[in-house]
Amino acid sequence: MRLIRSLIFTALLLVIASPAWADLTAFVGTATSPSNRMARGFAFGAGLLVVGFEFEYSNVKEDQLEGAPSLRTGMGNVLVQTPIAFAGFQPYFTTGGGAYRERLGDVEETSFAGNTGGGVKVSLFGPLRARFDYRVFRLHGDPIVDTVHRFYVGGNLKF
Fold this sequence. Notes:
159 residues; mainly beta
């Protein structure tokens, strides 16, 4: 009897389990605080139907003439998204934290940062999607700029 219950429980889990997904994004964009500078990076995510986890690396260029520091971030994020795309659009919300390094000339700060944002993944064809993302980064420690806004467009491969 115990074996039968275990088999039924396992079968039910397999039937109701949500499919897993993963995706990879390469992106370019702009950070707008305190001036517009090029941002580029990549993200790798995995999860279930609605909730996922993502690691993201980003590098924002320095602009010494404007007094705008470079910013490198490595973030771990929780991602909540619609389970399916609507008319090819799949919106999402994300929040998380990680480490950053800000540098302007000889001045450098490395500490913790949090980020919040969202965006949309747009189906193109097959597993290829475009990704539009907006984030607000809050830098802790003693940064030159403590709040950074970033927007990017990326190519996203779902697998």
